[in-house]
Amino acid sequence: MKRNVPLFIGCTVFLALFILTIAGVITNLTFNLFSVSLVPAQQIVTEVIVLLFWLGLNHFYLRQRVSWRFSFRRWYLVLPVIVVLLGDATLKPHFTFDWAHILWALGLGLAIGVVEEYVFRGLLVNYLATEFRLGAGLTATLSALTFAVVHIANLSDGDLINTVAQVLAACGIGFFFAVIYLITKNLWLPIIGHTLIDSFDQLAFGTLSNTAGTSLVTSSVYAVFFVLLGVYLLRKNRLQPGLRHVTEHQPSFGPHYSNRRLWIDPWKTVLVCLIPPLELLIVPLAIKLVHGQLGRVIIMDLVFLLGFCGALWLYGSVLKADWPRFKRHWLRNSLWAIGGVFVSYAILAAVRLVLKPLAVGSGPDVLSIQPALVSFAASLTVLLAPFTEEIIFRHALFYQWKQRGILTWLMFILSAVLFGLVHWNNFDGNIIAMVPYMAVGAWYALIYYWSHNIWQNIMTHFLFDFIQFLGAVLVLVVTLLQG
């Protein structure tokens, strides 16, 4: 069973970054819709959304009983964070002391502290100790390394040295906080320590970005100090391998669910979910290597063809299993698909009408601004999209999570939002213009939920997209006849 530890760690890192990104997008979209600009409030709301996701995932999937019991016993274990406060105070802070800044700093520090300690100390430490039966030292080390790896994402700020410094500090402090939790079974102690550090930095530097309040020297000191202190505490308390089993349930990864639930393969799920972001990243880079519109469109088609093949390779068995039931009543199911297309266009029209005051367009008219042959080549991707997107957004991100209570509907919302965002390049990053497609994505998820057959979705989606392909064919034919 321990061979699955790297997979579990990898999934945790992916989910931590993925959910934080999606929560940030949802928060920004909501605040922009209401024309509200409060950066600290947006950050706090983002953390709340992230926390709700992890609470749901734990309740319905991981099922770890995280200890929220608060006790003043051993409160002195939090005192070593003073080293961080003193060290950060040497990095040219610019304190802003007024009630507004203090309250925002405490609120943001607490929100981040609760989320990150719940995930990396509460869930991760419990799962590694109880499910994989790892020793206390290895459990704390893996918790620290996972926490540190997540901070590599801060490299997006463009400062390599500061990112390395933050990763070092996160590794040392994360190890120490994991040891505190292992010793006391009191998650509030690392939460308090984490809150003190982040609140102090928010007051001192006005941000928690890695471009402020970090130093390679101080971070190295933090890493060495807290690792040595954590090792000392572990040796002193002589913890036995594994925590007491706080819940009796079957392992979370494996074919153990009842007939009402599908077995979720985490490895396949992660891989298939990487296809859309890779396509969005690779296509703009690849087309720069080719001159001429037709060549660029062909490159784009090839990239999407690879995504299509990858999705089929991972989940082709789902299509194969559902096809006989769809074919048995193909006429009825096809009529339902045609009706689903009409509903899809009605949803698009209705949502765009609601968003009309925000000047939401329907996107560029590809057929009117490109030559006929280029339009035809570009439209070929719509023949692949129904298969790829239904496998990813409806099966991997929604249907396989059915019968899991609130988590099912959290994934329903997530799959719909991501389906809209995958059309990023179609609307030049205009998130408001993607909202109608989020609504259509929710409609397709309901079709799958009611029909229990992915081919019903594929057929509906195919007919919806086929209209664009048919338009491109007609334009090409008219152009050839006129030529």
Automatic annotation (TrEMBL):
Keywords: Membrane, Transmembrane, Transmembrane helix. It comes from the Bacteria. The keyword Transmembrane applies. It comes from Loigolactobacillus zhaoyuanensis. The keyword Metal-binding does not apply. Residues 100-199, 376-467 form the CAAX prenyl protease 2/Lysostaphin resistance protein A-like domain. This is Lysostaphin resistance A-like protein. Belongs to the UPF0177 family. InterPro entries: CAAX_protease, Rce1/LyrA-like_dom. The chain crosses the membrane at residues 7-31, 43-62, 74-95, 101-120, 164-184, 215-234, 269-287, 293-315, 335-355, 367-385, 406-425, 431-450, 462-481.
